[in-house]
Design a protein that fits this description.
This protein has 571 residues and is an alpha/beta fold. Helices cover 40% and strands 17% of the residues. It is built from 22 helices and 18 strands. The protein is elongated.
Length: 571
């Protein structure tokens, strides 16, 4: 154990010394990019948000520079200065090292904390600075962050924290380790108060910082190219004795594995954060729209089209239409109906499932959480989203977003279009049944309104996992089934060729299910949904969605959950 400790200390020290060479942009007409090694014109780097104009590599920037780039001009007011440090291990020359760094960086520790506005919205802002002992977390850093969340909780403010750290501060030993628990406890209280915490991971974010406050954001973003992980790559390679793959512990790797909501370019970071703050603004009612939408003559809906009107369709005809690759996908409805959509990624455990798209958007100014099971229009697109068949991590991502919506008082609108949950080996290994069951359990008691719309196929439990709603709607040519007609005919009649007959017996159409009381509304399709009539159908949906939300206004969370329970209890 002692040998491992010495090795770890040496490796961390080597990593920090190596990384600190590119902490900031040095003086001079020409500078060397720390990523590509090319000489670049200094003014070009500065005007390009401290990004190399040749390779796109990111220079590390100071905390003060970061604040100038993010906060509204002149709005930042620093908090919690002058906290005295200690030397709990009596580590040689540690106090002097701190004093030297204070003089060099003009900072009193490795983090600047204060109040600012971003896009005119008041927030608490914290920025770590790698020049100060690689922004390692000792007592003062932990104390500042803890006070940050305590004060933000007291004032009811959101928090944005730019993380950059080599990890725990070795010179303070176990006292540094305790800061991980202390900061996490303060974040929990801030979260329980229903307040937003956005963490932004920059290069590098490792060790005890990664294993505490850095990865606890409601929304977690990262700058491109940042090193992000618990153990440093050299530690891992020398411990396990093998070379790590290209891109390991980089944002793209973490995004693929479900641990990030997104990768944010530095040039657009301020706009992204401003929009996130805007989408989390407090509202008293679900139907608080800026102005009344003009009434629409729904009786004329769809009749202006010149396409051949559908008539006398059988259940099997509608099954074929529901499966058509020409039907608009969940992504297209989201893009057409909503504004300001920010896609959020990952289940925070395994990976980001492309079969599920979800995030935050506005419906005529009203923030909502939108989630959809998506299909593609081409084979390539369908392979990417697994033909609309979610894996366990997809359902877990959806549930994470729904619980986040509950925390912030946002309604959930879900678009369902799936032949069923993915039934592969890996899905069973990761607990497909448990993931669906967990969604049914948690959705049943969500304290915010849930509206689910079946826009294509509603296949079995894979569809129901996003359809435990206060209301469930179906498009006229959508289907909702216990299993496919082919499967029904094969199991009960031993002949899958009898699928058309099975479709009639199963009562899979919107008309059948409305009659059975399984759904509340049918969205008319005078002509099958397509790119040509997408905007018209989306307009119809949008108005009906707003009516749904207005109807939920004034209800308590308990009442909303109880009504959802009673809806299914009647079935």
């Amino acid at each position: 154990m002692a040998d491992l400790k010495r090795f770890f200390k040496k490796t961390v020290s080597e990593e920090r010394n190596k990384q600190s060479a590119s902490v900031s942009v040095p003086e001079g007409l020409w500078i060397k990019c720390p990523k590509c090694g090319e000489m670049v014109y200094r003014e070009d780097v500065i005007s390009n948000a401290y990004v190399c104009p040749k390779c796109g590599g990111y220079f590390r920037i100071s905390a003060k520079r970061r604040i100038k780039m993010i906060a509204d001009k002149g709005s930042f007011k620093e908090w919690f200065t002058g906290i005295e440090n200690s030397n709990p291990l009596d580590y040689p020359d540690y106090p002097q090292k701190i004093e030297d760094l204070k003089e060099k960086t003009k900072m009193d520790e490795a983090i600047l904390i204060g109040e600012a506005t971003i896009g005119g919205i008041r927030t608490v802002l914290g920025v770590m600075d790698a020049r100060f002992l690689m922004a390692s977390m000792g007592y003062v850093v932990g104390e500042k962050i803890t006070r940050l969340f305590e004060e933000a909780t007291r004032q009811g403010l959101p928090v944005i924290l730019f993380c950059c750290s080599g990890g725990a501060r070795m010179q303070e030993g176990i006292v540094s380790l305790m800061q991980m628990a202390k900061t996490s406890a303060a974040i929990k209280r801030h979260s329980d108060a229903g307040l937003l915490y956005t963490s932004v991971l920059t290069d590098p974010t490792t060790g005890g910082v990664t294993a505490s406050f850095a990865m606890l954001g409601d929304i977690i973003l990262a700058e491109p190219g940042s090193l992000i992980g618990f153990a440093g790559p050299r530690v891992i390679e020398q411990t396990i004795g093998q070379k790590l793959p290209e891109g390991f512990q980089r944002p793209e790797f973490l995004l693929e594995h479900g641990f990030l909501d997104g990768i944010a370019e530095r040039s657009t970071m301020r706009d992204n954060l401003s929009l996130i703050l805007k989408l989390h603004g407090t509202r008293d009612q679900y139907g608080e729209f800026p102005q009344e939408t003009p009434a629409r003559a729904f009786d004329t809906f769809g009749k202006k089209k010149k396409s051949k009107k559908q008539k006398n369709l059988t259940a099997w005809d509608r099954v074929q239409i529901a499966r058509s690759s020409d039907r608009p996908s969940a992504t297209e409805y989201i893009d057409t109906i909503f504004d300001d959509f920010i896609e959020l990624h990952g289940d925070r455990g395994v990976r980001d499932d492309n079969a599920i798209i979800g995030g935050i958007a506005t419906l005529d100014g009203q923030p909502v959480t939108v989630i959809g099971i998506r299909k593609g229009h081409t084979t390539k697109e369908n392979i990417k989203c697994n033909f609309g068949m979610p894996s366990p991590e997809g359902y877990k991502k959806a549930l994470r977003l729904m619980k986040q919506a509950e925390k912030f008082g946002r309604a959930v609108i879900a678009f369902v279009d799936t032949p069923g949950a993915f039934c592969g080996l890996e899905a069973e290994e990761r607990g497909q049944g448990e993931a669906i069951a967990r969604n049914l359990l948690e959705m049943s008691d969500l304290k915010v309104p849930v509206l689910s719309i079946v826009i294509g196929e509603g296949g079995s439990g894979g569809a129901l996992a996003l359809a435990v709603g206060n209301e469930v709607w179906m498009m006229e040519n959508a289907t909702y089934t216990i299993l496919s007609p082919e499967g029904f005919a094969s199991i009960l009649w031993k002949d899958s060729r009898k699928a058309p007959e099975a479709a009639e017996v199963m009562k899979v159409t919107a008309a059948h299910l409305k009659e059975l009381g399984v759904i509340e509304r049918i969205i008319p399709e005078e002509y099958p949904a397509s790119e040509e009539n997408l905007s018209e159908i989306a307009e119809y949906m949008k108005i009906r969605m707003k009516q749904f939300l207005v109807k939920q206004a004034g209800k308590s969370g308990e009442q909303i959950a109880q009504e959802r329970y009673e809806r299914f209890r009647r079935m």
